[in-house]
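Researcher: Please predict.
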Amino acid sequence: MQHRMDIRTAQLFLHLASSLNFARTSEQMYVSPSTLSRTIQRLEQELNVELFIRDNRSVRLTAAGIRLQSFVKNYLEQWHQLQLDLNQNSANLTGEIRLFCTVTASFSHLPAILDKFRLVCPLAEIKLITGDAGQALDKVKQDEADIALAVYPEHLPMNMAFRSIAKVQLQLIAPVIPCKANDLLSQNPVPWDQVPLILPEHGPLRERFEQWRKARGIEPKIVAKVEGHEAMVSMVALGTGVALAPSIVALQSPAKDRVRFLSPPDEFTPFNLGLCVLSKRLHEPLLRAFWQVASELK
């Protein structure tokens, strides 16, 4: 009997096209490695093309694979939307979603998602939990939050799903007021080894800073380590030192008039901001509805 691409095959292909890792897709999509391989082989046979180039070290999409990826993405998005539209119970879904994000994200990126979600699921409740961006993934892993707005990490845990919603620029910020940091910044060249620096305790922003200072051979003079990007902006505004921060956090801060940008917007690779959830929970109607709403707003 001739094989046809069903929804499950489409989902497996799309995940693999994104992860480019058979083991990761197998684990996150709850399918055995052999079943995943057979599914992809059948799809390639039906289309009579090679979709992936495989060798011992890597998996890459072919030109045909890239075209199919675009088709399948649209196909699944339309399918999910149809499910929501036809599900007469979607407007009657009840329950609570524990949502974690930073204070800044709660009014910069979250309102558009929540406004649409409340139209789709008006009876659902959102419990908002705010905190340091570096805690986002741990909150989900430890079941302290159902879903989180998080920065895509260098290594995404294999049991988590991530959906991008925005790019966030990063820039060095300095105080406006006269202070030791500005005295040093006025020198040419800037003696970066002497400039007081404020760092996050951990997380993606700390990793970006480490990449920057290592590339320049800087041994930083760290005057403070803090949790929360908003707190870093406040410390810079008080003249404590210089920090690397998401541009939107500085622009939305009550202290925005007391800080200035040192670096151009494109000097640092931007953060990939998105939703993060345990893969095994995406079948839950309420989380699935929230996930779909967010994907439509990108």
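Model: The two ends are 40 Å apart (CA to CA).
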